[in-house]
């Protein structure tokens, strides 16, 4: 059972050894990620020149619990739009928060704007 959900920014911070990577590394053994956020992170890596096959191997090697973005999560993410719109959260951001809410665990992010959001999901900034 996961005890945290990673958004793409947290996952990329870990992969790029950026500030906050130690927090993500500590969470990895019991972390989940929405398939939407996994795709976002993979997209960034590929856009920066990484081979898609190697990206897949790298991400699968982390042992994350990848959760499909199903209809329930789609509706949960949509319901978050009014509370998150002013902060510019994307569908991927809301997918992460929806999953964290569904699992009743903390969402880990490097996105500082999340710290001002008022929703019933625990958010932890990694830096």
> What is the tally of beta strands?
5
Spatial arrangement of strands, main beta sheet: 3-2-1-4-5
**Head-to-tail CA distance between termini:** 25 Å
Number of helices: 7
CATH topological fold name: Rossmann fold
Largest sheet: 5 strands, parallel
Judged by helices, strands and strand pairing, the structural class is alpha/beta
Radius of gyration: 14 Å
Beta percentage is: 5-15%
The CATH class is identified as Alpha Beta
CATH architecture: 3-Layer(aba) Sandwich
Order of helices and strands: EHHEHHEHHHEE
Shape: globular
- Output mean pLDDT: 97
Structural notes for this entry:
The chain has 127 residues and is of the alpha/beta class. The chain has a single domain, classed as Rossmann fold (3-Layer(aba) Sandwich). 50% of the residues lie in helices and 13% in strands. The protein contains seven helices and five strands; from the N terminus they run βααβααβαααββ. It has helices spanning 8-15, 21-27, 35-47, 52-60, 71-79, 81-84, 91-103, and strands at residues 4-6, 31-34, 65-67, 106-109, 123-125. The chain has a five-stranded parallel beta sheet.
Structure characteristics:
5-stranded parallel beta sheet; Rossmann fold; alpha/beta
Briefly characterize the structure:
With 127 residues, the protein is of the alpha/beta class.
Task: Give me the secondary-structure topology.
Elements (H helix, E strand, L loop, with lengths): L3 E3 L1 H8 L5 H7 L3 E4 H13 L4 H9 L4 E3 L3 H9 L1 H4 L6 H13 L2 E4 L13 E3 L2
Parallel strand pairs: 1-2, 1-4, 2-3, 4-5
